[in-house]
């Protein structure tokens, strides 16, 4: 349905996206992941026709949307990372305003506004001014705006940032419902790996402008199939202990949490006894040392050296 072909964007001396190639099939939910500065937002801006690429192309049903963006704009909905609403207007007034931009009029516009308010759970707040809404309600209304014209494709750039768990769950259920009931194709970016695990059929991972991995969740987890993730738990970790782990010749990567350290080593290496010895040497009282099945977060750390929310 959609294909990005050697897509590149340069800003003066900075190459934000480098020869990006990916495809999206009709009806899929695709996850696009990457740490800050990976090039995700630039890629999305080119896909949504807001930014023209330096080179390469974006194809929709084998036709260039770089050369003819207007046809694609009619069938795509955008949920931007930043709230894009008029806060001095009511929820209903916002939807009527944006509906007219989509060339909806009369009974059709009223019908769509009523329908969207029902879908995003804001019917009883339709007359309320948006500035009085919680962050989660604003996010839901933002999604409602993108849905007004029944798009075939919806691009959602971190739609759950900074909201409460209840609103977040509502948005995730809305995304699943749109995909299942309307067969809507979704491109989804997030800083929450559990959202990607829940929603996405396939995943692309970017870093420093490059595409570094792609596939289903299981295929991506197999990147670490020849390695083990060891979970080390304690109340505290000294710098000496962490340095010793990082400098160990068998250790591929070390990720430090508040009370857990994750160490990735080749599957053939047995590290348990050495971890215990290093801990004893540095006076660390361990609670547990366990093998851990690889997660998407582990693969992401392995590939980029950073956590998704860094």
UniProtKB/TrEMBL annotation:
One Pfam family hit: ABC_tran
Highest taxon of the lineage: Bacteria
GO MF terms, alphabetically ordered: ATP binding; ATP hydrolysis activity
Keyword terms, alphabetized: ATP-binding, Nucleotide-binding, Transport
Residue span(s) of domain ABC transporter: 2-233
Stretch forming the signal peptide: none
Protein name as catalogued: ABC transporter ATP-binding protein
Annotated source species: Ornithinibacillus hominis
